[in-house]
Amino acid sequence: MGSVRWAFPCAAWRPRREEWLLAARLVQPEEKDRIGQFVFARDAKAALAGRLLIRKLIAEKLHIPWNEICLQRTSKGKPFLANNMSSTCSNYNFNVSHQGDYAVLAAEPELQVGIDIMKTSLPGSSSIPNFFRIMKRQFTEAEWGVIKSMNNEWMQLDMFYRHWALKESFLKAIGVGIGFNLQRIEFNVSPLQLEIGKVYQETKLLLDGDEEEWTFEETRLDDNHHVAVALGKQEEYRQNHSHNFPLNLIASTCNSQEGPIISIRYIPWSLINHGLCY
Ligand SMILES: CC(C)(COP(=O)(O)OP(=O)(O)OC[C@H]1O[C@@H](n2cnc3c(N)ncnc32)[C@H](O)[C@@H]1OP(=O)(O)O)[C@@H](O)C(=O)NCCC(=O)NCCS
User: Fold this and answer.
1) For residue 184, how far is its CA from the centre of ligand 1 (angstroms)?
2) What is the pLDDT of residues 235-264, one digit of tens each?
3) What is the pTM assigned to this prediction?
C-alpha cells in the first residue's frame, strides 16, 4: 500500500459548472451540504478538494468502490474510514489540510499521521510585530527566539508559519482540536533554511520538555507554502488504534519508526476525477 503524499493546487482549479456539480455529487451528502455553506468559493473548493483526495486515496489504495466509501468524523472532527476493513488495512491512517493555494493529503499504512499546510502571508489588519504579540501564547520562548532570529520580518513570518504547520500537524495526528495547551509542545527546527521540493526530517519535538520519538517531515512546496507531516509511532498506534488518541499515549517510550523519505506528488484535477464512479 505504501505511504502517500499528494498536493492538489485548488486555487488554480477553475471547475466548469458541470465539473463542480460532478465533484459535489462524489462526496457524501452531509459533506456536500457543509461545503455548500461556505461563504467564499475558494473555501468551498479547498474543502471539496480535501474530500475528493481522501476518496481517491481510499478507492485506489484500499480498493473500495467509490460509492461504497463511508467516511465519518471523530467527536473532534477528524475524518476516518468507517467501512469494515480486513486486519491488514485496519491501521491505514490519513489526514488532509487545505490552506493557501493547495489541498494536501498524507496517508500511512501503519503510522499515525497528521498533515498541515500553511501559506506565509502578511497579517490582514496589523503589523508583523503586533501580530506576533497577539500570537505570543501559541509558541514557547525558545520557538519565539528562533522565529525572531531570522534576518527580516518576512523571514520571521515565514518561520512563524513553519512552526505553525509543525504544531498543527502534530495536533492533527493525535486528533485533538482546539484547546490543547500549545506551550506543552516545542519544536526544535532544523535546518533553518528549507529548499523548495526537498523533504527534511531533522526537526525534533519536545513534549513537556522531553524529546519525542515522532518524525516530522517538512517540505517547502514553493516560496510561501510549508507542509509538515507528523508521523507517530508504529507500535503505539497498533496497540491503541482508535479514532481518539488519549494524550497520555504520546508520552510513552516505544521504539521509534523512521518515516519514509518521499516527496509530494502533485495531483491535477484530471487525476482526481479519473475513473470515479458515482
Ligand atoms: C481542524 C483543526 C484540527 C485544524 O484546522 P486547520 O488547520 O484550520 O485546517 P486544515 O486545513 O489544516 O485541516 C482541516 C482538515 O483537517 C481534518 N480535521 C478536522 N478536524 C480534525 C481533527 N480534530 N484532527 C485531525 N484532522 C482534523 C478535516 O479533514 C479538515 O478538513 P474538512 O473539515 O474540510 O474535512 C482545527 O480545528 C484545530 O483545532 N486546530 C488547532 C488550533 C490551534 O490551536 N492551532 C495553533 C497552532 S500554533
Assistant:
1) 19
2) 565 555 544 343 332 222 222 233 344 667
3) 0.89
